[in-house]
Every structure is written in structure tokens, then in C-alpha cells.
Amino acid sequence: MIPAELLKKIRRIEIRTSHMVNDVLAGQYHSAFRGRGMEFEEVREYRIGDDVRNIDRNVSARWGRPHVKVFREERELTVMLLVDMSRSNQFGTQSQFKRELVAEVCATLAFSAIRNNDKVGLIAFTDRIEKFLAPRKGQKHVLRVIRELLFLEPEGTGTDLAAAFDYLNRTSRRRSVVFLVSDFQAAGYDQPMRIARRRHDVIPIAVADRREIELPNVGLIELEDAETGETIVVDTSSRALRQNYALAALEGIERRNELFRRMKIDSIDVRTGESFVEPLARFFRKREARR
């Protein structure tokens, strides 16, 4: 039995993200992603502007007038949401937790997919695979995906991106658009990501909170590693400590982004408390321009 408060939250996310898909991102998702290929549709008489390379010589000779083959893009795609559910995502200082932001981003992508008659699947993971939902179509299925993202209680606490990619590679034989949604507090996933990229269109979405990059000056505080439980007391009144903290965080982000650049992978950055619509729309526009 799902608690009433969770049902309300699912409904709020459905309303909000459906609005974004219909009014803000309409058409951009469709333009950003190619279908699986071109499918023959018909032969018709040549019209000015048609590509002469598509002229069907046999039909043209039979009718005495030029005819062209017409193709249409086979649109149906499979979208896999590869979602980090580790304990570090249960953190947030900007009006929402990272996990809530993850759910909204994934809901927006899922609704965009089903609006275009694409299938959506889910692989939720921590340091193990927590949940797998096979790709399907329809609003009812998307609502189940949202429910799992909000309601699932993971057994693991850490993050194993390598294991998540290995599971994706074993279960998704068909080429898919894979949105990897994570805070990337992990290491050793370079090679599994390279392997996944050979078959799939892998798109990392990096989720962060402001305080993971910038410490406030509030004196002595105790920090806990959400995934290991290790704690440490730090004096945030020290400017040097705050600067070193920010520098270490930014260096980690740059290493991650450099890895994506080497793999020629487009990534999206979103933060708690900030709109994720513009980063998504910017990514879609970039993809469309590249096509």
C-alpha cells in the first residue's frame, strides 16, 4: 500500500513534468534523437526538391517518368534510465534532496519518451542492482518508474557504476538511449562505460548540491560520508579549509568532465534548488544542431 503522501508527491511530479514536456520541451526530445534507421515507405512520382539519388530507375523506366523511393525514419527508441540510488543522493540543502531532483529529471525524460511512442526502462542501483523494470510504453508504466524512484528503499549504501554498466550490457542487447543519472561519487567505471558506449547512446546527468562544492562559514561542524558512515569534524571558519574543499570538489568535477570529453560523450549538469529545464533544453538543442 503506497502512503497517501507519496501518491500526492507522484501526482505533483506528474503534473509538473507533464507541463514541462508539453509546453517547454515539446518537439526538442524528438529532434534530438535519431530513430533506429530508415524504413522504405513507398514509390511516388518525382517532385522538385526530391533527392535524385532516391530515383528508382526500374519504376521510372516502366512509367516513362522519374519516380523516387520514399523512406521514413523508424522512430521507436528504447530509453533506459540508469539511476544511482546510493545514500549520497539522500542529501540536499537547497529546498530539495538530490533524490527528489533525480525523480523529477527522470520523470521529464520518461514522459518525453512516451510522448514520442518510445519505450522506457529503469535500472536502479547502489553498490548492487536494486531494481530493474523492463522497457515498456505508456503513462501507467512511467508512473511506476516514478514511484520506484521515490519509494524504493535501497539495500546498498555505496555507488558501483561499473557494476551498473555491466548489468546494462548484459540485459540491454538492443541499442538504447541510456541516461545515467548519478552524483558520480565513485571510481573505476571508465572501461565499463566505454564498453556500454559501443552499443548504446550513453548520456551522463551529473546531480549535485551547492554544499558539495562550497562550504559555508558556520564554525565547527561534523561531516558524515553518507555512503561509508565515516565522520569528521572541521572548522569552516578557516578560509584555507573552505578553499581547499572547493578546489578538491572542482578538480573532481573536471576529471569527470575530461573523461566524458575523451569519450566524446555529451553530459548534463543539474543542481538541487535550480531549474533543470534549461540544461535539458540546451542539451536537446545541441543534439539537434549536430544532426
Q: What share of residues are in beta strands?
A: 15-25%
Order of helices and strands: HHEHEEHEEHHEHEEEHEH
CATH evolutionary superfamily of the largest domain: von Willebrand factor, type A domain
Number of domains: 2
What is the CATH topology assignment of the largest domain? Answer: Rossmann fold
**Which structural class fits the helix and strand makeup?**
alpha/beta
Q: How many runs of DSSP E, i.e. beta strands?
A: 10
Q: Report the helical percentage.
A: 40-55%
The CATH level-2 architecture of the largest domain is identified as 3-Layer(aba) Sandwich
In this structure, how is the largest beta sheet organized? 6 strands, mixed
List keywords for this structure.
291 residues; alpha/beta; Rossmann fold; 2 domains; six-stranded mixed sheet; two-stranded antiparallel sheet; 9 helices
Describe this structure in words.
This protein is of the alpha/beta class. It has two domains: 41-74, no CATH class; 76-290, Rossmann fold (3-Layer(aba) Sandwich), CATH 3.40.50. It has nine helices and ten strands. The chain has helices at residues 4-24, 28-32, 57-63, 98-115, 139-151, 161-171, 190-199, 239-262, 277-290; strands spanning 37-45, 67-74, 78-84, 119-125, 129-136, 177-182, 201-208, 220-224, 231-235, 268-271. The protein has a six-stranded mixed sheet, sandwiched between helices. Strands 1-2 form a two-stranded antiparallel sheet. A two-stranded antiparallel ribbon has the order 8-9. Strand 3 (78-84), helix 4 and strand 4 form a beta-alpha-beta unit. Helix 1 (4-24) packs across helix 4 and helix 6 (161-171) runs parallel beside helix 7. The N and C termini lie far apart (46 Å). The mean pLDDT is 86.
